[in-house]
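Consider the record:
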Amino acid sequence: MRTILYVLLFCSVMSSALAEDNPLTSHNRSLYVGVKHLLVRSAEKMPEEHYAFKPVDSVRTYGQIIGHIADTQYIFCAAVLGEKNPALKIEKTKTTKADLVAAIKDSCAYCDKAYNSLTDKTATELVTIFAGDTPKLGVLSINNIHNIEHYGNLITYMRMKDIVPPSSEPGFIPEKKK
């Protein structure tokens, strides 16, 4: 939990440099950029042989979590872009590390378009998602929350395999200058 708070704090500090004339959407985008880096790095860092790992039968494998994140990013970002969700079913169809790393990168590239296109003016436009109307900024905020929630799962899986998660790597949180 502490690591996730550090991640959010780091991303929040980064947002001040991106504020421009759109402080709300710039802040949300900077959070996404930070989480996106952690997700891609997590997909790359886990060895192939652990992509089928799951601690108990009732949860997703590491690879399925990566696929699930990619799938849901398409849902959220397609709604913001006003496009039809491509519904790639990555979680159900991709199992290799190479395929899943490519899938998470592709879903992030797709979402980059949604985050980069949003301004504070367009952030309040409503889109329908999960049978309800939600402001575009809210949809992308939910994407960030969903991503960090599952990054927490990935952290646990990595720790169980004695792998240091990206947010705990030396240098992730810049040292405070004295």
User: Anything to note?
Assistant: The beta strands are 126-129, 132-135.
